[in-house]
Amino acid sequence: MKKKAPEPRPRTAGRPAGGAALSKQRIAEAALAHIDAFGLGAFSMREIAAQLGVYPATVHWHVSTREALLAEVAATVMAQVTPPKGTLAWQNWIAELFHRCRAAVRQHPNVAQLLGAQLVSNGSLPTELVEGVLAALTEAGFDGEPLREAYNCVIAAMLGFLTMEFSPLPADNTQAWAEELRERVHTIRPLDHPVLTRHLPQLANQAFILRWDNGTTVPLDSSFERHIQITIDGLEAFARRLKPAQ
Amino acid sequence: MKKKAPEPRPRTAGRPAGGAALSKQRIAEAALAHIDAFGLGAFSMREIAAQLGVYPATVHWHVSTREALLAEVAATVMAQVTPPKGTLAWQNWIAELFHRCRAAVRQHPNVAQLLGAQLVSNGSLPTELVEGVLAALTEAGFDGEPLREAYNCVIAAMLGFLTMEFSPLPADNTQAWAEELRERVHTIRPLDHPVLTRHLPQLANQAFILRWDNGTTVPLDSSFERHIQITIDGLEAFARRLKPAQ
DNA sequence: ACCTGAACACCGTTCAAGT
DNA sequence: ACCTGAACACCGTTCAAGT
Q1: Where are the transmembrane segments (chains A, B) (predicted)?
Q2: Closest CA to B56 of B27, B83, B85, B29
C-alpha cells in the first residue's frame, strides 16, 4: 500500500515556473483513480498527496476539505449519465437514465456509497439530470406536489438501488466475515423461517441482507431491470390515479 | 465535545469483582446514544471508551472491530421493525413494514447511512424481516427468479429511500455549504433548465439533489407514502405479467 | 499564487502486563 | 476472563514561511 512519489520533483517551496502544477481537476482524477484501485476505505488526503508527489497542505490549498474533494469525485463519475432530451418517450427516457447511471457506477463502484449516503455528493449531481427527470415526469402528466413526489421516487429508486448494490464490504478481514455470514445464512432454522429456507438456493449471495459479495463480484442485473419496470409501472398507475376522468 | 468519564471507577487492571462491567450490549447502547446525539462523524472507539470510563483496548476486547460495533448498532435499531405475520394482506404487510422501518430510522436518523451503504450492517438486519417479505411476495404469487427480483426491489426501495432521505450533511462548515447550494439552486439558468425553473418553489430543499437539509429537519413524508404506493402498484403489475392466462 | 515543512489534535488496533 | 497502560502507524487540517 505504501508508494513513493512517482517523480522526484523539485521539492522547493514557492510558485512553480510554468503555472500551477496541480488543479482541482487533476486532484479529483487522481483521487478517483486511487479509489477505483483501492476502495474508499484506503482513500486519504495524505495518500492522494503522496500519489501526486506533494505535501498534504498543497492538496488542501486546492480543495479546502476532504468532503469537498469526494463530492468532486462523485460529480466526475456522474457527469455524463443524462440522456439527450426530446428523442424518447418518458418511460424510455427514464429507463435509459437508469441504465446509463448504472453503467457509470459499475465503472467506479467504490464511489457508489457517496451518491446516496452523503448529502454533499448527492447535491453535486448534474443539473441536467434533474431537469431531464422533471421533463419526463411532466410529459407523463405530473405537476405540482405529485411532480415532486414522483421525482423523489425516481431518484430514490435509482440511486438507492445502486448505493445498496455496490455498498462496500468490510475493510479488513473480508473473508472471515464472508465466511461467518455464509454460515449464518445456511444455518437458518427451517421451522422459524420456512419460506426463506425453501428459496435459499435462489437467494444466497444474490439478495440483499443475504449476500457477502457486492455488485462488483455478483451484479444484480435482472433485479435492476425489474426495478426499472416496477418503478415505471408504478408511476403509470400514479398518473392514472390523477386523472380518473380519463 | 470532551467529556470526563462519568464515574471515577477503580482504574486498576484485572478482572472486576462482580463479573464483567462491560458487554457487547452495553457498548452498542452507548454507541447508539452517542451517535444519536453527535452523529456518525463524531463516533470513534476512543470516544465510546471515554464515555464508558474505560481504555480503548477494553472496548476492543468486547467488539473486535469498529465496523462490527457499527453493525451491532444498526441491528439494534432495526430489531423491532418486522410486523407480525398472518394478519394482513401482502400489500398492507409491506406497507406496514415500510412505515415501521421509517419510524425506527427517524428515531435514529444518524444510523441511516449504515443500513444501505455498508454491507456488514445490511447483513445484520433481522432474519424475520427477510422471511416476512418473502412470505408476502409468495402470497402475491411470486416464485423462483421473479421472487428474488421482487424481493430485491422491495428491500432496495425501502432502505434506499431511507438511506437517501437521512443521508448526513457535511461534518463541519454545514451552513457555509448550505448557503452555497441554496445559491446554486436559486441561480439556475431558466433557458437551460426551464422545467426545473418553473417548479423550483415546489422543489427547493424538498427534493433530492436540490436540498441542503436532510430528513431530520425536512422529512419527505408524502414522497415516502407515494414511494410505497408506487412500489406496490409496480409489484402488482409485475405479478399480473406472470400469469397472463388470468 | 502556489507550495514546503512542521506541527496539533486526533484516529483504530495491538500487545504486554496486571489480577 | 477482563482490564490497564503504553505504544505503533496512521489520520485531516492549520499555519508560518518560502518564492
Answers
A1: none
A2: B27
